[in-house]
Design brief:
The complex is a heterodimer of chains A (118) and B (109). Chain A is an all-beta fold and 118 residues long. Chain A is 0% helix and 49% strand. Chain A has no helices and eleven strands. In chain A, the strands form two sheets. In chain A, strands 2, 4, 5, 6, 9, 10 and 11 form a seven-stranded mixed β-sheet that branches. Chain A has a four-stranded antiparallel β-sheet with strand order 1-3-8-7, with no helix packed on it. Chain A is globular, with a radius of gyration of 14 Å. With 109 residues, chain B is mainly beta. In chain B, strands 2, 4, 5, 9, 10 and 11 form a six-stranded mixed β-sheet that branches. In chain B, strands 1-3-8-7-6 form a five-stranded antiparallel β-sheet, with no helix packed on it. Chain B is globular and about 40 Å long. The N and C termini of chain B lie far apart (40 Å). The chains are: A mainly beta (118), B mainly beta (109). Chains A and B meet through strand 10 of A and strand 5 and strand 9 of B.
């Protein structure tokens, strides 16, 4: 089945220790997104890629970086995690993305990675 | 600024009907989505409305009024498995999704 896969499902890291979360998709979608979601809050968009075109949200901290080496994979790097970065990190894909005139695509989400910072 | 408002929490009884409201103020409008999110899991797509009116899909229906900036999700014949958060999201003029914080729906036997 075509899907969005995130690894690991649960990640524990130490304060200040770099961590990388991964996402892969078999849907062949053009657009990939990274969201941060804290308990009882709306998902907060961190970045999105339209193909290889990287788009950073204005309020995404510099501590967060992303890479998309090919269509199928996308990585979220947190350079120096703080306690406030503990959250669920959701990867999503869509066939069409922001700025695509006349096209609207629903987003398909992976199961998420729950990050704990100790 | 852009804003999506939904009630924080609602309670309903198994077998009953519940309506979850969503009001929005966004820069432009390219459709409204409803997602279901069970605790600790990712959101899953329920519905998409871009024209005024009611869209029915099994036990779930979604309504949109663009002039009022208003939508609702109607759940019929509630089951215990419907206990989840329901997120309203609006696609703005830049085709960016603006998310509400979600409504936690608690179903009681």
């Amino acid at each position: 089945d075509a899907m969005v896969i995130q690894n690991p499902r649960y990640q524990v890291t130490q304060f200040g220790k770099p961590v990388t979360l991964s996402c892969s998709q078999t849907l062949n979608h053009n657009v990939m997104y990274w969201y941060q979601q804290k308990s009882s809050q709306a998902p907060k968009l961190l970045f999105h890629y339209y193909d290889k075109d990287f788009n950073n949200e204005a309020d995404t901290p510099d501590n967060f970086q992303s890479r998309r080496p090919n269509t199928s994979f996308c990585f979220l790097d947190i350079r120096s995690p703080g306690l406030g970065d503990a959250a669920m990190y959701l990867c999503a894909t869509s066939r069409y993305g922001p700025g695509t005139s006349g096209s609207v695509g629903e987003q398909y989400f992976g199961p998420g990675t729950r990050l704990t910072v100790t | 600024g852009q804003n999506i408002d939904q009630p924080t929490e609602m309670t309903a009884t198994e077998g009953a009907i519940v309506q979850i409201n969503c009001t929005y103020q966004t820069s432009g409008f390219n459709g409204l989505f409803w997602y279901q999110q069970h605790a600790g899991e990712a959101p899953t797509f329920l519905s998409y409305n871009v024209l005024d009116g009611l869209e029915e899909k099994g036990r779930f229906s979604s309504f949109l009024s663009r002039s009022k900036g208003y939508s609702y999700l109607l759940l019929k014949e509630l089951q215990m498995k419907d206990s989840a958060s329901y997120l309203c999201a609006v696609m703005d003029s830049n085709y960016q999704l603006i998310w509400g914080a979600g409504t936690k729906l608690i179903i009681k036997p």
